[in-house]
Write a structure and sequence with these properties.
alpha/beta; five-stranded mixed β-sheet; globular
């Protein structure tokens, strides 16, 4: 059995094990999740579609949960259920809304149509990296109640961006916009779809955990994805070329079930509030950027050919993508949403 097959089997085993553990916890001690206000412990089931070893778990969520447990003197604690153990990537937001999970993390793009204004942060070249994109995103979230309203069914813990998307291909290097014409490329979001369609590629929507197999079997010719996936999803095995253009960053959420939050005492809520928000969002972005650096290192070690767009070339690509910005603004305004105002502010923040 190959290394990757062993990896996949391990992820599958732990996903099933996590689900069984969750079921046992729910059956044997459901009172834990009912009334922290009455002095009982709240044990947060934290759901994630990412594999168990992902740095967002080890370097962000796990430290956060330890700090929560310490700050509440053990009255609130949590357990991560990774690898989509509690639900698929496109179910994560609803898991938190319904209370199937106390908290969940996923890409906004996994729930199409749910977060239209949040999509401004995924427009092309709206942030050079995860930290820069997170800075822009959090500022917009705090300034515009319309963006906050898109998350109103839940309690927002933090919102953040991943490292910038690049173009991964299996057989053909992409050096010019025209090189994408006719290729089938995985897209993670409406933003990615718009970029690919502009250059004549056929977007194929595939969750990140299915990209390896799709590229390996030739279902797609490549993928739009950040460098961090090279290590986290083993894409160095199936990638021959990468075009580095920092085309856009994807947005992610960490949210909590509203009733779970209400069941936490005011004193503990205050303690947890101090651990949420911008500081942990920026930490999550920094972790993604560090992860991206590791991905680029592995790409070099694997002999992947990297073509980096010059500043002049980026300007040409951005100019060609102007209709994408205009279309987004028009679509938001047609819905009665302040698309132009939010876009203008995003550009101002980008240029700071």
């Amino acid at each position: 059995m190959g290394k990757n097959q062993q990896f996949i089997r391990r992820i599958g085993f732990f996903g099933v094990a996590s689900l069984m553990a969750f079921a046992l916890t729910a059956c044997s001690g459901s009172s834990k999740n009912t009334a922290a206000k009455g002095g009982k412990t709240v044990d947060l089931a934290v759901s994630s579609f990412m594999p168990g070893q992902h740095p967002q778990h080890s370097d962000v969520i796990e430290p956060f949960l330890r700090e929560v447990e310490k700050a509440t003197e053990g009255r609130v604690k949590g357990t991560i259920y990774s690898g989509s153990a509690l639900g698929k990537a496109n179910e994560q937001y609803d898991l938190a809304v319904t209370g199937t999970a106390a908290m969940s993390m996923a890409l906004h793009a996994n729930t199409p149509g749910k977060f239209p204004l949040t999509g401004v942060t995924e427009l092309p070249f709206m942030g050079e990296n995860a930290e820069d994109g997170t800075r822009i995103f959090w500022s917009l979230y705090e300034k515009f109640p319309e963006i906050a309203e898109e998350h109103a069914e839940t309690k927002v813990a933090w919102l953040f961006k991943n490292d910038a998307a690049q173009i991964f291909t299996t057989k053909k290097p992409i050096k010019k916009m025209e090189d994408l014409n006719g290729l089938k490329i995985r897209t993670p979001s409406p933003a990615g779809t718009a970029i690919l369609e502009t250059f004549g590629a056929t977007p194929v929507s595939i969750p990140m955990d299915g990209v390896y197999e799709a590229m390996q079997k030739g279902v797609v010719d490549g993928a739009l994805a950040p460098a961090s996936v090279i290590t986290n999803f083993q894409l160095s095995d199936v990638t021959k070329y990468i075009t580095k253009g920092n085309f856009y960053t994807s947005s992610l959420f960490m949210v909590m079930n509203s009733k779970t939050w209400e069941n936490i005492s005011p004193e503990d809520q205050k303690a947890i509030e101090n651990l949420m928000g911008e500081s942990v969002a920026m930490k999550a972005g920094a972790v993604y950027d560090e992860d991206g650096d590791l991905g680029w290192k592995q790409a070099e070690e694997a002999g992947i050919e990297v073509y980096e767009l010059s500043d002049d070339e980026k300007a040409e690509w951005e100019k060609a993508l102007q209709p994408v910005y205009s279309k987004w603004i028009d679509e938001m305004e047609a819905k009665g949403l302040p698309g132009k105002e939010i876009y203008d502010e995003a550009v101002r923040l980008k240029n700071q």
